[in-house]
Write a structure and sequence with these properties.
Helix content of chain B: over 70%
Strand content of chain B: under 5%
Order of helices and strands of chain B: HEEHH
Structural class of chain A: mainly alpha
Oligomer: heterodimer
Strand order of the largest sheet of chain A: 1-2
CATH topology of chain A: MetI-like fold
CATH superfamily of chain A: MetI-like
Shape of chain B: flat
Number of domains of chain A: 1
CATH architecture of chain A: Orthogonal Bundle
Strand order of the largest sheet of chain B: 1-2
Distance between the termini of chain A: 27 Å
Radius of gyration of chain B: 15 Å
Strand content of chain A: under 5%
Number of strands of chain B: 2
Number of helices of chain B: 3
Chain lengths: 287, 90
């Protein structure tokens, strides 16, 4: 019989964190919600406007196109980075010095700050002096990412894949390494092909790390700001203007605090929806 | 109220959320929740159902504001009805 007295006082230890989160996260978020219902310039010049900013934002073609662009970007990088990351992890040696060296190389892009990544790619893709830009022009492709929307997208996607596929590869590698050898031996005895081993042995074991990898990439790509800002500045036109950049223009550039707050709340709700979706999948997995 | 430019509607909104959280804590102390599977086909606790109903009411309101901004109350009625449905049978 369990005679232990139930003591929950250890939870009080979380109190300082709760206070810090309240001051750095919860109260600012509440302020944003509060501003989203007002036409506010400063403390003495503010008016209650109801849902006007929400209605305006949701019917604003710039918001709708930025949102569509954001979804397309996120879907594209997920569709490329997840399979590519798995392929890289599958191609790596299971142990030894080579594996360590490859792991170190893979970690390098993850350590570079986003604005530096943007600058590297801006120089790398320039059609006049950049290695990639000059090479592509030499091969006969009239490449100038500052003038063509599709080429700007191509460069952005290439940059994100270069920057973040390593993360998926590292996570997949750790997942693959956790599969015990007898699983492979059993598959071999059953005469399973490479594809069958991957599909029925490795993929089910990789499921939880892949969910985490997808969640991390989804969240991060949905908030992407610095790299496109440095690389393309949202252009040409507004072809690579994503949600966060559009928001920054409204809030910091035009100082439209009310509409920017409504925009932020809508943006936040969608991120919350994605998080809830993945949380539900992870929890149903653990059940 | 003047602190940080608060206005009555947002104060009422956040006070309601705070009251909801306190109610959940009190309910949990006296009637601990058990996971169950309702019409949403998800295993949910009471807190999960509150979160789902809050999030979905927010989206119902967004839809109402975007499509018929003049009659937002319709959206509010739909949202409350949906929330009751989720909390009871979700």
């Amino acid at each position: 019989m369990d005679n232990r007295v139930k003591d929950n006082r250890a939870w009080l230890g979380v109190l300082p964190v709760l206070l810090i989160v309240a001051f750095s996260g919860v109260i600012p978020l509440m302020t944003v919600v509060n501003y989203s219902f007002q036409d506010i310039l400063d403390f003495d010049n503010r008016f209650f406007v109801g849902f006007q900013w929400y209605s305006q934002t949701l019917n604003d073609p710039r918001f709708i196109t930025a949102f569509a662009r954001q979804l397309l970007f996120t879907a594209s990088i997920l569709a490329i980075e997840i399979p590519l990351g798995i392929m890289v992890a599958k191609g790596m040696p299971r142990q030894g010095k080579k594996a360590t060296a490859i792991l170190l190389f893979l970690a390098v892009p993850l350590l570079i700050p986003s604005n530096v990544v943007g600058t590297i790619w801006q120089l790398f893709a320039r059609p006049d002096i950049g290695l990639m830009g000059v090479s592509l022009n030499y091969l006969g492709w009239n490449f100038n990412y500052t003038a063509s929307a599709s080429q700007a997208w191509f460069t952005l996607l290439a940059m994100d894949i270069w920057h973040w596929t390593s993360l998926v590869a590292l996570l997949s590698y750790s997942g693959l390494r956790s599969i015990p050898d007898p699983y492979y031996q059993a598959a071999e005895l059953d005469g399973a092909s490479h594809w069958q081993t991957f599909r029925w042995v490795e993929l089910p074991k990789l499921k939880s790390v892949l969910i985490i990898a997808t969640l991390l990439r989804l969240m991060d790509s949905f908030m992407i700001y610095t790299e496109p800002l440095v690389l393309t500045g949202g252009g040409p036109g507004s072809s690579t203007t994503f949600l966060s950049q559009h928001l920054a223009t409204m809030a910091v550039g035009q100082f439209d605090l009310g509409p920017a707050a409504a925009f932020s709340v809508i943006y936040f709700l969608f991120i919350l929806l994605f998080c809830w979706f993945f949380y539900t999948i992870v929890m149903s997995e653990s059940d | 109220m003047t602190w940080m430019a608060w206005i009555t509607p947002t104060v009422i909104f956040f006070a309601a959320i705070a009251a909801l959280l306190v109610t959940l804590v009190i309910l949990e102390l006296f009637h601990p929740t058990e996971k169950r599977r309702g019409f949403l086909q998800l295993k949910t606790t009471r807190g999960d159902r509150v979160f789902i109903s809050l999030l979905s009411t927010a989206f119902i309101h967004l839809f109402a504001v975007a499509v018929f901004p003049a009659s937002i109350w319709l959206g509010s009625f739909a949202a409350v009805a949906w929330a009751i449905l989720v909390l009871t049978w979700g």
